[in-house]
Amino acid sequence: MALHVMDEANRCLQCKVPQCQKGCPINTNIPVAIRLLKENKLNEAGKMLFENNPLTTVCSLVCNHEKQCEGHCVLGRKGAPVHFSSIENYISTTYANMMTNGPAKSNGMRVAIIGSGPAGITIAIILARYGYQVTIFEGKDKIGGVLRYGIPEFRLPKSVLDDIEYRHLELKGIKIRPNTLIGSAISIDDLFRDRCHQLHCQSSLEQVYGNLIHSILRVKLSEMFILALIILITPTAIGLVNVLS
User: Comparing 199 with 100, which gets the higher pLDDT?
Assistant: First the structure.
């Protein structure tokens, strides 16, 4: 383990009211992640991070930590804050290399996700955990949206996105249809004829929230599914889009 990661972890005060967590748009339980790392429970820390945020590896690299988690750290008031970005990157990268589980048991329902930006990827991963058979339709030849085409390589290496595609999408049985424009190559009616439940994933906060809720109400999914989407997807996917846009 890199010494500076443990040095940073040991600086954490384990505040009873963690301001770092309040500063995180997706409410990452930073003190618990650090405590688990110090207790040599990296797998538990990694699982917790990925369950809260499937794109935790990406966020460790591109989030505006200076104004969010690290910017709210109480140590930063008189000195240097705990650099959680380094800790999160170490935990998520190490844990991701051990993620080889296959798809969850299918519940028989299919979902079509239009767009493979941060919201689309996040929603796909979460739905796959609950057994939904997910297909992502992407207009370009590679997944990622703004992550791939809007962030330079030195800030977010494309290898990180390729790893997400393999470990979090392909291994989980999520299908990807690249170079497929919905509206020209395939119509919305075609998706519904295929008995897919449609989720639009746009790039801005209002568009994601509006289209997501509209689609849920339109296809009249179950109460449990609506609750799962609102509780689990909205804080993560919409929070990420708000951070990265």
Answer: 100
Distance CA 160, CA 164 (A): 6
Instruction: Give CA torsion, residues 60, 64, 65, 71, to 10 deg.
Output: -170
Query: If you search the block for the tokens 């972890």, which residue do you land on?
Result: 9
Please give the average per-residue pLDDT across 104-122, as a whole number: 84
Query: Using CA atoms, how far apart are residues 203 and 70, in angstroms rounded to an integer?
Result: 26
Q: How far apart are the first and last CA of the chain?
A: 33
Q: What is the pLDDT of residue 163?
A: 94
- What's the pLDDT tens digit per position in 157-184? 999 999 999 999 999 999 999 998 877 7
Tokens of 153: 């390589």
CA distance 144 to 186: 20
Q: Tell me the one-letter amino acid at 198.
A: Q
Distances in whole angstroms, Cα of residue 35 to Cα of each of 11, 54, 59, 80, 235: 11, 20, 20, 19, 24
For residue 12, what are the contacts with CB-CB under 8 A and spacing of at least 6?
A: 30, 31, 34, 35, 82
Angle, CA of 23, 244 and 114, to the nearest 5°: 125
